[in-house]
Amino acid sequence: MTIHRPIIEILRHGTPGDRLQVKGWVRTKRSLKEFSFVEVNDGSSLSGLQVVFSADLPDYEPLSKQLTTGTAVEFKGELVASQGKNQRVELRAATVKIWGTADTETYPLQKKRHSFEFLRTIGHLRGRTNTIGAVMRVRNACATAIHQFFQERGFLWIHTPVVTASDCEGAGELFTVTNLDLENPPRTPEQNIDFSQDFFGRRAYLTVSGQLEAEIMATAFSNVYTFGPTFRAENSNTSRHLAEFWMVEPEMAFCNLQGDMDLAEAFLKHIFAYVCDRCPEDMQFFQDRIDGTVLATAEQIIHQEFARLTYTEAIALLEKSNRSFEFPVAWGLDLQSEHERYLAEDYCQRPVIVSDYPAEIKAFYMRLNDDGKTVAAMDVLAPKIGEIIGGSQREERLEGLEERITAQGLELDAYWWYLDLRRFGTVPHAGFGLGFERLVQFMTGMENIRDVIPFPRSPGNAEF
Amino acid sequence: MTIHRPIIEILRHGTPGDRLQVKGWVRTKRSLKEFSFVEVNDGSSLSGLQVVFSADLPDYEPLSKQLTTGTAVEFKGELVASQGKNQRVELRAATVKIWGTADTETYPLQKKRHSFEFLRTIGHLRGRTNTIGAVMRVRNACATAIHQFFQERGFLWIHTPVVTASDCEGAGELFTVTNLDLENPPRTPEQNIDFSQDFFGRRAYLTVSGQLEAEIMATAFSNVYTFGPTFRAENSNTSRHLAEFWMVEPEMAFCNLQGDMDLAEAFLKHIFAYVCDRCPEDMQFFQDRIDGTVLATAEQIIHQEFARLTYTEAIALLEKSNRSFEFPVAWGLDLQSEHERYLAEDYCQRPVIVSDYPAEIKAFYMRLNDDGKTVAAMDVLAPKIGEIIGGSQREERLEGLEERITAQGLELDAYWWYLDLRRFGTVPHAGFGLGFERLVQFMTGMENIRDVIPFPRSPGNAEF
Fold it and tell me: Across residues A448-456, what is the average pLDDT?
């Protein structure tokens, strides 16, 4: 028993006359008097292969009865041209083997619509549905496109650590990683928990970003990217937040903000083009069933140049817009979701890259512009989605970086190695971050981020 | 300033007469009276580009003085055929820009040999050395080869969760993930820590394996693989253990142990062939400087069929060997490292796959063979390395699985969803696990596993 020929290959390249076997799970069955039509799906594509299972075959009655939704089955037979208009070929079964049945009374995935909420409670089975199946194939294609994009350009994929001793970005709440006996932890003389006796010899956390480590690697290998899990312990029970999500973070030495923006645009164009090319049936499914704009959005991303605005220009446009926004608009205040959407959806009507934000509202590592007020930061804002990518040129000047760290109330000592990168052969460098699940949402039109990751982690939820 | 042309491209494809710029860091400088030879490296290859920097250029003296090891530099000029025998082309510099200096008094990476122990203390700089540079390029090539292998065969890359509520394999010590206030945690009426008030509503851990989740996905998509970080809280301060490491775990529906072994062998052959093809200079470096057998090993993996033995055959061979082993040899006892090495190095003199181990010494999820005593498990043993891959056909029969779980003292309830996979459309399926860092060690001959991962995590160590 070796790797079988996936159904997608049979659907695409199978020729009438081929003798083959197909293995998968029954999606639907229509029984007529002289034969049954059985749709078999193996997860390789949205469409299954139609199998014609004739009443002339031995044990037709009992076997046909067992061919219920969810049953694992193996048919051998001959591929023939299909009479039906929904498929090019179908399999005329000569033999059937039932590997595992699925009781119609207890199997939760009967042929009907299920809410995504319900499907989340059966995360071990939901991959077998049309929608989650299409999501996971598109997700895989996105991931493959990301690797292809960077590898073709000579970027090294680097694995930055999940466990870290520093809250380097100061980016919100952190999960602690420990193997102390929490019921009875070791104590310091002051009666605090003695984390020096913990596994890593100090308190350790789950990472919120691999950027700072990516900067290390960029100063050795020039162009690198991370693609790994990151974490937020924020109690955000929303359709846009996960406690564990995958992030992509390229980092380029000898690159400024301009190069960073160019790369971000080329990157999104590449991913959308790749997925539309590889998963046309799945993308059509999202267009038809989930969000009637996904194909137009993909077309736009692929073919239209992104708009570019400075933050200062964006503020002026927002002030002139005569819109009544919920949040105030003024130079120095951060852009809110409603502002971002106005810029992308209404004013530009396409993705827009906003750059050069006020230093006060951005992280310490972003490079101060010559005006002394703004930093070389950029966000890619997409219609309907808002921020999809955030990036910056990094402060590569030692003194400026020290000032920014101190000004934000952070400890210089904690950044000794980050500062060393500015002491020894410092270079202009830049990078960005893309939340991978946000990208998959953007691509598919799926409303809830928990439905675009195999096993979502959120407050109160670590099942499966 | 956009993505620059990597030096490896110039070395491979540059033509005398090309006018170009090169950006990178000075590795070495030799100053003669009329010019300096500067070797510039940007991390894209082991070799740098030789730049000839003439004394005729303006400010030659002060600039040349600054071109010390580690200095970040940009040269523009014309590519010319090299007179030297170490390179095909070299750059005749017309201009130089120094981006960042590296003080010879304080920059730790002066031109001399450094011990790997010392380099680990400067993890933020060690990627700039020849050895760690070559390791990271080979590591990237291994990772790319893994994705290519599976994607070409229609496997989906699935991201299994890092945070998990179950110690599903019972595989040793776990790290706890929490955001409780550990100094003052909520308590149950019994005065235990009340993990129901923790972020995930229960006690959560870092995963030790994505296998069980991969099985979920294989029963929807047939062929899948994980490639992500996994964790062990074992206090093993050895050259072969990491607390955080990356693991690759394919899982195939409709596949038995035979198919699993075939895939594992094809997989290793593919990776070695890919890396030797893509990183010939780095591999030659490991051969010359680190381990004089790595090229022969790669040749053998690529071209020679792996040996295959059952555990029962292996025990018989070990008993007949007349070797005096430290650990006893008897049917029912696990193979120790010395036994594995005897089988691979001495008896087979090539990689060997040992299969069908006693049920008692293997995990609950492995499929019981018809003899009632052994399970459909397999380990790929490599000369010098020992176990590099471990896999099995999984127990797909509900009753047998329940018996195995109970027999190992585990709770059936914790496995409700894993058991469901056997209730609804169960299929024969199999998979294996590869420790990614072990693979990189195997490929490069590097002795210490901490030197084949960018930022190693081990007891007492979570720096960078």
Answer: 98
Cα–Cα distances in angstroms (integers) from residue A119 to residues A131, B419, B428, in the given order = 11, 18, 25
In a domain, A265, yes or no: yes
Min CA distance, B146 vs chain A (Å)? 12
Q: Do B221 and A125 touch (CB under 8 A)?
A: no
Q: Which residues contact B405 (CB under 8 A, 6 or more apart)?
A: B364, B411, B412, B415
Instruction: Tell me the residue range of the domain where B198 lies.
Output: 175-207
B216-250 residue pLDDT tens:
999 999 999 999 999 999 988 899 999 999 999 99
Question: Using CA atoms, how far apart are residues B459 and B236, in angstroms rounded to an integer?
Answer: 7
Distance CA B204, CA B193 (A): 13
Give yes or no for a contact between A157 and B143, defined as CB atoms under 8 angstroms apart. Answer: yes
Q: Write the CATH number for A15.
A: 2.40.50.140
Measured distance CA(A38)–CA(B365) in Å, rounded:
32
The candidate with the shortest Cα–Cα distance to A175, out of A111, A130, A106, A229, is: A229
pTM of the entire structure? 0.97
Q: Do A4 and B256 lie within an 8 Å CB cutoff? A: no
Is the CB of A136 less than 8 angstroms away from the CB of B154? no
Number of domains in chain B: 3
Structure token digits, residue A368: 């101060």
What's the CA gap between B425 and B219, in Å, rounded? 8
Percent of chain B residues topping a pLDDT of 70: 98
CB contact under 8 A, A127 and B217: yes
Same domain, A89 and A11: yes
**Residues of chain A contacting B228 with CB distance shorter than 8 Å:** 228-229
- Residue B56's contacts (CB-CB under 8 Å, 6 or more residues apart) are none
What is the rounded average pLDDT of the residues A376-394?
95
Residue type, position B73, single letter: V
Q: A193 to chain B: which residues are within 8 Å by CB?
A: 182-183
Any idea how long chain A is? 464
- Does residue A463 form part of some domain? no
Do residues B78 and B194 share a domain?
Answer: no
User: DSSP letters of B173-218?
Assistant: ---EEE-S-TTS--B-TTSSB-GGGSTTSS-EEE-S-SHHHHHHHH
Q: Is B292 inside any structural domain?
A: yes
Closest CB to B223: pick one of A3, A72, A185: A3
Name the residue facing B454 among A132, A160, A162 (closest C-beta): A160
Name the DSSP class of A369. P
Residue of B nearest to A45 (CA): B221
Task: Give the whole-angstrom CA distance, residue A407 versus residue A420.
Answer: 19
Cβ-nearest to A427 among B72, B259, B396: B72
- Do A377 and A338 lie in one domain? The reply is yes
Minimal C-alpha gap between A330 and chain B (Å)? 31
Residues A338 and A424 in one domain: yes
Are B218 and B429 spatial neighbours (Cβ–Cβ below 8 Å)?
yes
Strand A374-382's sheet: what is its strand order?
Answer: A156-157, A223-231, A244-253, A429-435, A386-393, A374-382, A352-358, A307-310
A82 and A142 belong to one structural domain: no
**Shared-domain flag, residues B156 and B23:** no
Chain B residue closest to A252 (CA)? B3
